[in-house]
Amino acid sequence: MNEIRIDALLPAEMATRAEYLGVRKAEMPAFTMFMLSLLAGAFISLGAIFATTVAAGGMSVTAADGAVAYTTGLPYGVTRLLTGFVFCLGLILVVVGGAELFTGNNLIVMAWASGKVTGRALLRNWLIVYLGNFVASLATAGLMFFSKQYTFGSDSVGIAALKIAVGKCDLGFMQAVALGILCNALVCLAVWLTYSARTTIDKIVAIIFPITAFVAAGFEHSVANMYFIPYALLVKGFDPAFMAKVGDKIPKLEMLTWEAFFINNLIPVTIGNIIGGAVLVAAVYWVVFLRVKKI
């Protein structure tokens, strides 16, 4: 007779579950995989929208001689904490709602290392999911541009969005790789922790601290950046009246270009995300809990 348990799964059981889910994800039909990856791109973008709006809340708007002046309203760490907390919305929607996220799917490496998923199936999943995440993120950025939500808060939301994107485009290559490694180690740890969950509440609580930590610390997430930077580029490129008002409030605005998006951020951050998720989390846990089975 099977024992009925309500306790969370133990780490060794989590590893077996990660292996099982990796096989399911790799064997998913391409159309289903792509549609679910579109959802994940949109979900992470929603988290980014929430985070940008809250980041703008770190600035108080005051009137000075008839002009609008922006001054810091909250300490840096507090603003980052709140921004990271609300960004959790994205991964909660992905995990609980069901979607395919490139960064989380780095954990499929555990099933690959056990020989249950071929290298071709692994790369097929990553390619399709990455593309779907990218398409949905761009589409969400376009929709948000037409909403003109960036003008809310007396333009403070748009200023926050532009500053976030400029900071991401102003990274050095190795710096972006390192920030990407640290980010996806935490993202994959969040997903890994959800494998222990028995309830939806368990999953949500498991997600909150690792995701809040990576955002608060300023680490780089490739899929989130597929929204953050294109959104700011659309504002910069297609609303000259808005930029005429706020452009002088954005240091290094010239760094915000499509070339910098790909070269300075997306490519190195993606490399770092793969290392952080596939090597530092998936490979390590495979060695600890599944390598004996393979031998």
What's a concise summary of this model?
By secondary structure, the protein is mainly alpha-helical.
Order of helices and strands: HHEEHHHHHHHHHH
- What does the radius of gyration come to? 20 Å
Number of helices: 12
How would you sum up the major sheet?
2 strands, antiparallel
Q: What is the domain total for the residues? A: 1
Query: What's the average pLDDT?
Result: 93
CATH architecture: Up-down Bundle
Strand content: under 5%
From the N-terminal CA to the C-terminal CA, the straight-line distance is 30 Å
Give a count of the beta strands, DSSP E runs of length 2 or more.
2
CATH class: Mainly Alpha
Portion of residues in helices?
A: over 70%
pLDDT under 50 segments (min length 5)?
A: 59-70
Strand order of the largest sheet: 1-2
State the fourth-level CATH superfamily.
Answer: Glycerol uptake facilitator protein
Helix/strand-derived category reads mainly alpha
CATH topology group: Glycerol uptake facilitator protein
Q: What's the structural blueprint in terms of helices and strands?
A:
Blueprint: H1 11-26, H2 30-56, E1 59-64, E2 67-72, H3 76-97, H4 109-113, H5 119-147, H6 156-169, H7 173-194, H8 200-217, H9 222-238, H10 240-246, H11 258-289, H12 291-294
